Structure formats: C-alpha cells, structure tokens
C-alpha cells in the first residue's frame, strides 16, 4: 500500500492559489530527482487504500473576474495568484476544517486532506484514528478506521519501512512522510457532492546515517469523492494513480542529516484555491 492515503475551486479555473499561514515557514525545492525504481515500487506496494491519507496550507485579488472562467485549455495570466478568500475557518486537531460551501472550498479541502492523510500521523494508532475521523464523512469513518488500522498498523509493513511497531522511527533516525500538492482539479461539482483530483509529489523514507530506506520522491494523482455534511466537505472515497512524473534534474542528493534537519525546520502549508 502506498504510504500517504486516500491517506481547491476558483471560478472553475483549475489553478491553485496558496497562502502561507501565519507563523509558518515554507520551503521551495529546486528541481526534482527521479526516484529509484526500487523506492517507487516500495511506495506503490505499500498502497494503503489509495494512499494511506492530511493537512497542508494556503490572497490579492486578480485574474478572472467573478462569475467568469478562462478557457479550460488556457490558464489565465494570474493562474496561481491568490484569490483573497480565506481557505479555512477552523482546525480539528492538526487538520484544517471549515471550508467554503462551493467548488473552491471542495478543492481546498481535497488538497489539505491529501496532506493530512499522507503524514507521519497515519502510522501511529491514536493520531491515525483522530485524523481519519476528522476528514472522513461520519457514515464511512468507522470502516475506514478498521481498514487503515490493518494497513498502517501491519507489523510487516512497518518493518519494511524501517519503523518500530508503534509507528515511530528508531532512535537516531527521522521519519519523513510529506505530501506536497502541485495543483487541484474539480472533476465534478454539485453543492452536495464533489470529485476533486490532487496532483502531488510525495517524500517518504527515513533520514539518518543508518537509514536503509533513505528519503525518496514519487508523484501521484489522488481523486477524492467529497460530500457536504455537517457544514463541511468530508471524504467518502479515494482513488490513486501514478504520475504525471516530471523528468528529474541532475542534482546531488543531500546528506542524511541535511535532509533530517530540513524536514524538522521547514513547516508545511494550508492549501487554498
């Protein structure tokens, strides 16, 4: 099962806007590296229900006037400019909640849920259940808790990753599981139901000198089926496929300690359309 999982709309433009949350520091990576085939196979093989599922992050008006949309084949000039609309109004633990009841809100929810469901919390029983109950619709949450407990809590899986039985990294190592959305697309939308695809990269592995599973990168597209329930967008189902995968650049891989320091020093985002 893939680590991560099952674990934003702005006038239908199909482009992502981000806003840095107060107090957080974001990082911008340069080029990407093509992940080793063995690492990609591991990620795909870990496939815990369309990527075992979490929380990400993001204002100046511009681009398309309200009520209009650019051609679906031609992004607007300000395709990635912030909309000025606040993405969320609250949090449930570490997961942003309180999304707008519109297409933009559905896309924001999908991006942030992708981050949450792809985080290290999914590998620890208590945090995992709290996260699942926060992002999934009430009618499916119990079943998802059971299914994902079997996946993420599997001792063989944890051993292959290099984690301890409680889902934490051995002493001296840093566990990295981070989803970085690149864009979102509303496949279908009604006020009660939405289908949103999230294209993202995924960092996964153990950083440290003794790591036998160094941090690598992979690319996926996850499609979230969302339902408006109890005043918010919630997940009812998730599907995942590989790619699109960009060509890797010729860059030197960072040392293990440099990677561990980066993960701990650079915070995540709250994502918004």
Provide a concise account of the structure shown.
This protein is of the alpha+beta class. The chain has six helices and ten strands. The chain has one domain (2-66, 79-272).
Describe the model:
The chain has 273 residues and is of the alpha+beta class. The chain has one domain (2-66, 79-272). The protein is built from six helices and ten strands. It has helices at 37-45, 103-116, 125-135, 138-152, 155-161, 256-265, and strands at 2-3, 17-19, 47-52, 90-92, 95-97, 174-189, 193-207, 216-229, 232-242, 270-272. The strands form four sheets. Strands 6-7-8-9 form a four-stranded antiparallel beta sheet. A two-stranded parallel sheet has the order 1-3. Strands 2-10 form a two-stranded antiparallel ribbon. A hairpin with an 8-residue loop joins strand 7 and strand 8 (216-229). Helix 3 packs antiparallel against helix 4 (138-152). The longest helix is centred in the middle third of the chain and has 15 residues, at 138-152. The protein is globular and about 50 Å long. The protein starts with a strand and ends with a strand. Mean pLDDT is 76; it is low at 4-79.
Structural features:
single chain, two-stranded parallel sheet, 4-stranded antiparallel sheet, alpha+beta, 273 residues, 6 helices
The structure class reads: alpha+beta
Mean pLDDT value:
76
Shape: globular
What spatial order of strands do you see in the largest sheet?
Answer: 6-7-8-9
Q: Helix-strand pattern, N to C?
A: EEHEEEHHHHEEEEHE
Kindly provide the radius of gyration, computed on alpha-carbon positions and rounded to a whole number of angstroms: 18 Å
Helix content: 10-25%
Number of strands: 10
Distance between the termini: 29 Å
* SS element count, helices: 6
